[in-house]
Every structure is written in C-alpha cells, then in structure tokens.
Specification:
By secondary structure, this protein is an alpha/beta fold. It has helices at about 15-30, 40-50, 55-60, 85-95, 120-125, 160-170, 185-200, 215-220, 235-245, 285-300, 305-320, 330-340, and strands spanning about 5-10, 35, 65-70, 100-105, 130-135, 145, 150, 175-180, 205-210, 230, 255-260, 265-270.
C-alpha cells in the first residue's frame, strides 16, 4: 500500500520547489507514495482567513509524513496582534503534531567551499547537527501587548528539556554542545541543570560542554569544525541554525526535519519563501530535495534511497551545477534535471 505524504507548498517559491521534489521522490521510489496537497501559510490566510485550517491539520495527522516548502512574505507582514500571520501556521503545525525536535544538518559540500563567505580552510570537514527544541520557550509563552508595553513569557519544563536532550545525545557520536544563557536567564539555568542530569544518568560516554549563546555564535564562525551536535532551546536554535546555514554558502542548501514521538514528521528546507524571485524560475530546489531525503531516512527508514538523493545533489554540484544564489545561472528546472540525471 502506498504511503501517504501531505504536501504543503505554502507561499512564494514554495510551489516551484515542491513539485520538482515530488519528481525526485518518484524517481528514487517509484510508486511508493501517494500525495495529498493542502494550502498553508499565507495562501491559506487568503483562502480561509487562517494560516492552518483544522482540515489541513487533520490531514497532516493522518499522513505518514509532511513535506513543507516555505511560508510567508511581505503581503502578510503585520504588527497587528489581531491579524493572522503565515508563521502561525508553522507554530500550529508543530504544536498540533507534537513536533518537539528540529534537526538541521550542516555539512558544506566540497564543490561549494568557495561559495561560502568564510575561508575554505575554516569550513573544510565541518559536519554538525543543530538539535533545536521546537514547542517550548518564548515562541509559545504567554504574550501581552498594550500601546506602550509588550511581554513574551519564556517557559520551559524539566520534561521538555529532558526529551530534547535525549534526542541530541542519541544523535551524537562523541560530543554534545549545549547552548544557553545561564549567566542571565533562569530558564537557561534550569536547562543547564537538566541537560547535566540527563548526561550523567543516561549518556556518560558522550562528552558534554556548555556554551553561552553569544560565545557559540562567535565560535560557529571562528571554528565550525569544533561542533558535532549543538543542543539549543527554541529561539537560540532558530538564530544559530540560520547562521550555520551560511557556512554552506547559501541558506538555499539546508534541509531540516521536525520530529515528535510516533506521529508524522515535517520535512522542510531552512530557507524562506523568497517572494522577490517567485515566478522567475530561479529558485534553488536543492534544500527541498535534501529535505525529501531526510523524509526518506527519518519517516520511512529508506536509507539507501535517502543516500541516493544526497549523492545525486553532490554529483550535480561537483559537475558544475550552480543556481543564482550559488553564483551561477541554472534555473529551477535545470537544477532538477541535473539531479535527476545523477539518480
């Protein structure tokens, strides 16, 4: 029986990169998946007045995996707390599916070393994983707003920290770097204490280090090879993973997986909806392809097929494929054909 994948094209370049990703999936796993597409983000606001409808959430809950392209754009930007925003769809999807762990692998490819703003010798052999807690912290805390004052409550529980720490330690071969702001924030002091206790009780063979977030931001640029697994709370992970993306030369190259306990995961590129290039055929689909590869691996256990997708992307780049964000001229369609030719 075919496995069900819900497709959420979203906004901007989203539909332009999701359709080619389905081509790649069907090439590497013919007949394996059946797809169901739903509007999401800004497109859903336009159609239904909300970024995530109950129907779309129910479809995602009933799927084996969710493949999401991109959401947002200036059309829906607002500072009015009463108006819907596309990003509310992301938060609602994560909360509704119980997706507490966001995995963002960062591994600059040799073919793109010279596309990075950092010197080749700094980024060579970098291979790190950002493990970001996804459903707690300041993004989900109680919010207040008056004409002259606003507040965002940052809240974490011991159980939330324990479960994301286990994901990070479980993914590590030798070292986990836990990021916090324990010199200032009470939530970070609890974070550090709980991560230490999980380490001591369950993963004593893995090295653990603690870094303040400002130090971690500097070291990501100065010595990225130092990191293997970066464990972060929600907001710090959001910021640091985008910083780490630039090690690869383009945020258009990074995939991500958002996972929970037992339900369907959501797989999406790290980049945004790039409304400035929507409709021009210039979008880089490679992070979308790599996100589909993460889906094959984490949702379905299809390791060989996931490796085939990743290898095809590597080979296409090694053969000279460059989209505009990587300093070249290849269109979305040309990038897709280049990858398909190497599968």
């Amino acid at each position: 029986m075919a496995r069900k994948v819900v497709l959420l094209p979203g906004d901007g370049i989203g539909p332009e990169i999701l359709a080619p990703a389905v081509q790649v999936l069907d090439a590497v796993c013919p007949g394996e998946f059946e797809y169901e597409e739903h509007v999401f983000g800004g497109a859903s606001i336009d159609a239904h007045g909300v970024a995530l409808t109950d129907e779309t959430l129910a479809a995602c809950r009933g799927a084996d995996a969710v493949l999401l392209a991109a959401v947002g754009g200036p059309k829906w930007d607002t500072t009015d707390p009463g108006k819907p925003r596309p990003e509310q769809g992301l938060l609602g999807l994560r909360k509704g599916l119980g997706l507490f762990a966001n995995l963002r692998p960062v591994k600059p490819l040799p073919a793109l070393y010279d596309a990075s703003p950092l010197k080749r010798e700094l980024i060579e052999r970098t291979d790190l994983l950002v493990v970001r807690e996804l459903t707690g912290g300041i993004y989900f805390g109680r919010k207040t707003r008056t004409a002259d004052e606003a507040s965002d409550n940052c809240l974490y529980t011991r159980a939330e920290i324990e479960r994301i720490a286990r994901v990070a330690f479980g993914a590590a071969r030798s070292r986990v770097t836990s990021v916090d702001k324990a010199n200032v924030l009470e939530t970070s002091r609890l974070w550090r204490e709980v991560v230490r206790s999980v380490h001591a009780a369950e993963f004593p063979n893995i090295e653990l280090e603690h870094l303040l977030v400002d130090n971690a931001a500097m070291r990501l640029i100065a010595a990225p090879r130092h990191f293997e697994v970066l464990l972060t709370e929600n907001m710090f992970g959001d910021i640091l993973s985008d910083e780490a993306a630039m090690l690869t030369g383009s945020i258009g190259m990074l995939p991500s997986a958002s996972l929970g306990e037992g339900g369907p995961g959501v797989f999406e590129p790290v980049h945004g909806s790039a409304p400035d290039i929507a409709g021009t055929g210039a979008a880089n689909p490679l992070a979308m392809f790599l996100s589909a590869g993460l889906m094959l691996r984490h949702a379905f256990g299809l390791e060989a097929q996931a490796a085939a997708v990743e290898s095809a992307v590597d080979k296409a780049l090694a053969a000279g494929l460059r989209t505009p964000d990587l300093g070249g001229r290849a269109s979305t369609a040309e990038a897709t054909q280049a990858v398909l030719s190497h599968l």
